[in-house]
Design brief:
Shape: globular
Number of helices: 14
Strand order of the largest sheet: 1-2-3-4-5-7-11-12
CATH superfamily: Glycosidases
Oligomer: single chain
CATH class: Alpha Beta
Structural class: alpha/beta
Radius of gyration: 21 Å
Number of strands: 14
Bound molecules: 6-O-phosphono-beta-D-galactopyranose
Amino acid sequence: MNKDFLWGGSTSAFQFEGGGRLGGKGASIYDTREAKTGVTYSIASDFYHHYHEDIRLMKEMGFKAFRMSIAWTRIYPKGIEEEPNQEGIAFYKDVFQELKASGIEPVVTLFHWDMPQYLVDHYNGFYSRETIDFFAKYARTCFEEFGPYVKNWLTLNENNLSMLIPWMYLNKESEVAKKEPKQLAWDCYYNSLLCHFLAVKLCHELVPRAKIGNMMASAFAYPLTPKPADVFAAQKHNQETMWDDLDILTTGQISESLVKRLADKGVKVKSSLADQALIADPLAKIDFISFSYYFSLCMQDKGQPADSKAETMQMLYQAYYNPYLKKTDFGWQIDPLGLRIFMNELYSRYHLPVMVVENGCGVECDKLEDRTVHDAYRIDYLRQHIAEVVKTVDEDHVPVLGYLPWGCIDLYSASGNKDKRYGFVYVDFDHQLKRYKKDSFTWYKQVIASNGKEL
Ligand code: BGP
């Protein structure tokens, strides 16, 4: 393992930062959701008030990197203002300086789903072209203000899935929301794609010493059986959920095959010459591929009667359970070797360095006893995955830049469930958000100190 390997952990603003509307922050879609569901995203793990303590804990574990996202609404409260919010800028500068002083590189996601509510209400999020300009302005501000502190940037979290969840950023009462769903999904995705390209280009122009990557969700599927039709189903699934997106990001064009496949579904790709020039701009090419990996999937031929013994794994996509794998209590199948297979596949396709920016096992069974949590199950899960990362680097010689497991300090799950925990540090959400080191804290510290040798 390279001595510069980025060991660390990963979070996002809406799930971790809290701080509510303090410091002039505007409402994101999660703040609005809070009013409806009662899930207290405005507090979450309250990194806003605990960052000194949290960074101390990360330093104690030996973190080399920490992934966090910037809340767009902390910089531009509505998304549309002329001038950025200086208090928001000061907050993040403070965090970055403290990370730097602790020897920890920030890995910063520009957009982790927390769209300004104003842009949803008035522009239907990524549906509108205006949002691209607002996003570009936000990204420019981030690079100009934080460029001196941040060497590693990620654009939009899990953007390959944005075609599957366009309604996240739509005003459901608007006329737009009633449009033909496939075209609507593509149009939203396409505009978010332009946001990605603009951000990459701006980053290369404004912070030339920095590196910037995409962030994709692994939806990696095996065929359920060696039946050629199942192999083809898996191939199609991987193409449509991951490679179509990555092919655009890395080749600088929307392939004719994709345009025709979309046309077969009644979806039109409207791409201006200026868009095409941006997509093809060498400055708009990513430096590395980052991704989340929690499980692998199995696919079978949809045209055939479903294998009655195959259990369905209902996610964003209909997939099947792999009879050779165990699964978590949340039904996510545990596949450490799948991570190695996936990274090899990525590298052989795109020849770019890769970075694991999310991985982990969310459980509801963490129990605080005598100021700690005995989380052998977490250690077991991470040990197996890290072992595969090490082999991918040392035996397959794939350039893996870092391993940043998800929710390194407990945070809210994307679904709002604060009892689904991933961290090395327990956050007592019922008692002043006090922090406690779990058994995995000491274990991970030794993993980092030995550069992945002592697992
Ligand atoms: C990814 C998201 C994260 C995170 C993670 C775990 O898709 O990028 O924000 O939440 O999944 O999922 P969950 O929170 O549902 O356990």
